[in-house]
Amino acid sequence: MNNSSIKSFSLQKKSSNSLALLISAALFSSALVLPPQAHAGLPFSIGSQKLPSLAPMLENVTPAIVSVSVKGTHEIKQRIPDAFKFFFGQGQQRGAQEKPFKGLGSGVIIDADEGYIVTNYHVIHEADEIEITLKDGRKFTAKKLGSDAESDIALLQIEADDLHEIKIADSNDLRVGDFSVAIGSPFGLGQTVTSGIVSALGRSGLNIENFENFIQTDAAINPGNSGGALVNLRGELIGINTAILGPNGGNVGIGFAIPSSMVKNLVDQIIEFGEVHRGMLGVVGRSIDSDIAKAMDLKTTQGGFVQEVTPKSAAAEAGIKAGDVITKVNGKTVKTFAELRGRIGSIGAGKKVKITVIRHNGQEKVFTVKLKRNDSVDIEAKNIHPAFDGAKLENDNGSGVKVVTVAPKTNAAYVGLKPDDIIVGVNRKAINNVADLRKTLKDHQGVFALSIKRGQSNLYIMIR
Predict the structure, then answer these.
(1) Burial of 274 (0-12, 13-18, 19+ CB in 10 A)
(2) What is the CATH number of the domain that holds 189?
(3) CATH of the domain at 424
(4) How many Å separate Cα 455 from the centre of its chain?
(5) Catalytic site residue from 5, 24, 69, 122
(6) Which among 246, 271, 296 is the end of a domain?
(7) In this structure, are 232 and 115 located in the same domain?
(8) Residue 175 in 3-state DSSP?
(9) Could you confirm whether 226 is annotated as catalytic?
(10) From the candidates 180, 226, 261, 346, which is the catalytic residue?
(11) Residue 459 sits in which domain range?
(12) Does 225 or 247 have the greater pLDDT score?
């Protein structure tokens, strides 16, 4: 495994030894599933006494956990040695070099019919080739349908028969102390199972990702497990493993997983739109602590304190005001502002959410908020069809797919696409969004015609 396949972060924790802890976003996989009843199907016994085992659950779940192998190149920019800066100028760089890399991670099959696999963004980032290995040894080349760097989620797809999928649980129902099981391929050893409990919920402020709302577990997670499954004793997915905290990157029983409910929200958006339509609440704030609670005479020490409400935002239109303390999202408690941000950040634009606030007078109010959209997008256009390689696409408010930019000397430029073109049809079939475009061109063979709106004109582009 290459170092490039592991992202690392460091935290300084003040203690008697000023221990420096390393957060290593390891490539790891985890998936464990238990039978419908934890006491059912106990296969082993000593004499007449049956002993509990996770084996029945694992036999059902582990086929849904895959290994992810990636290849690609990094661009390495070399600085000019100090001794030569006189000749080349201060701050200039020598030509960039391409350095090949390989990486290993894990993934989880969430839809057997469509071949959808969830993994971490950092596992497949910059990969030119993605190979999936199933538990039964079969290997397939995967394509990336979409990703979200800010939450570290990516969606892949393979074409294969006889796949096994995992059921997704509602991670909002988790409690500290619930049992958890992780499955992955640590250090390239092959599929490995570890177990533990949910150690904490709503972990944030670790600076691992932009939107953080982690499940913390003591189930052993190591490099090689990223993108794998964290499951409950019913064999349901409760999280995607993404990072560990420990000296020198080793496991010390502090691992983090992205909650399954957050994953499902993001993946559903990628499937529908080809991108994440991140919902925005429109507030600026901070977490409540005892000092803020005392200064503001608040009756709670948990939640997100609203310092500012952006004009014309979703929060402003719903009636949320500066000074409010947000304590719940859709009836589920939020303890910190970072947790609030992580929850909202995975809910799609246009979705309605119920926000519970406590006002300065102690009155609790519930607002129904329709989230607005953050316009940042990341569509893998070339994975829709090779003809779009070099183009940046985005949905055009349900009336087609807009070509945002076209890089010169690429396939998109060669076929005749131009910035601001709106793709409204393929072979006389209407196209409303990226999902329509991807579905229409899936497995398409031969020539097809793109119906384009260009300014006041309508035209067809024939693509072979």
Answers:
(1) buried
(2) 2.40.10.120
(3) 2.30.42.10
(4) 36
(5) 122
(6) 271
(7) yes
(8) coil
(9) yes
(10) 226
(11) 381-463
(12) 225
